[in-house]
Amino acid sequence: MGRFFILLLIYVVLLGTVTAQETPPPDVTTIQVWWPDALYNANDQHITDTLEMQLDDFAEAHLFIAVEVRLKRSEGQGSVISTLLAAEEVAPGAIPDLVLLRRDDLAQAVRAGIARPIDDWVPDTLRDDLLPNALSLGQIDGRLYGMPYLLRIDHTAFRTATYETAPLTYEDVLNSEAGFLQPGAPLPNQAVNNVILGQYLAEGGRLVDENGFPILDQAALLTVLTFYEAGVQQQIFSPEILSYDLPSDYWSRFAQGEAPLALVSSTDFLQRQSSLQNIAAAPIPTEGGTSLTLLDGWMWVLTTGDPDQKNGALEFLKWMMRADQQAEFSESIGILPSLAPALRIWSNDAYTRQITAWLPESIVLPVDQRNNPAAVQLQAAFVAVLNGVSADEAVETALKNLTTN
After folding, report:
1. pLDDT of 66-79, one tens digit each?
2. Model confidence, pTM
3. Which residues contact 117 (CB under 8 A, 6 or more apart)?
4. For FRET with 260, which of 157, 162, 190, 281 sits at 20 to 30 Å CA-CA?
């Protein structure tokens, strides 16, 4: 085994403990990487063996770069982003060289001045190999701060016994008169639910105008809320969905057949589809049936400004972005890779063809706008309709509140 070694016992017992490895000689650059626990399962030997092999191979191929990995929580206190922000305030020297962050966390790291731009480093061949639209995940204010590594796409899953064809339009959903499970609550630190926001944006809606001021577009908002009003009347939707902020909150209900249609993440779909029969995937319904999926993912983010550390970190990043390695690790953990050559290596041909077709039109939700006054009123209007208020009244109230507040 190479100089890099993942000590599973330490990882299981103490998240954040440094891996055990030999003290490197003075001429070796040691880089520190923070790895989120969402991308590691100590109870799955295939995942741990795959990752350990890739890291050991790096150590053997790069004798003058030592890698020290710390496993961090993905959410809450002690998470990658919370620890980064705390370290920036009180102990800048404790910041690692390279981390894996999701887009929302990347935006926080950029605002805090922790993330370093990598526009000038990314080789053209790597850019060209990324799946369509993936690069936009790592771009903040026109600059590239994150290299997409693993992707998550929100779409729907439906039972083919209920739907002969994929329910792509609002009319398809309403004609079925069957339940539709989806998150209705915003995620933590957001003012608006992602699904309603995605559908609103798909209809041409905006949260800011050309001058950066909050705005709601009446026609787009009315189109989306009219769908939910009809759905409430037909008992397709209920206020119960306001208790869900993630698809995992109701997956068991979908699996048990309580509803034939559900908003799911690609991660949930990949990791659980083998336990379900007669299930197919489709985009999120829209008024006209245009393809709507929501794109997020994990990105490599450079957090060091030291030239030697930077060179070592980028060499490691390049190693982990090799297509064969990315394909092997991503398929082992059941999360989509960011590279088209990696996805082509996967064995799940039918689903990967769908993903490839959806990605060019997928929406990367605006991070900063999701907490502005327009987002607040969009969510409030959605909640009102789910509780029985008409779409017309909810729109009128939202526009009035946005103007007066």
Report:
1. 999 999 999 888 89
2. 0.91
3. 143, 144, 145
4. 190
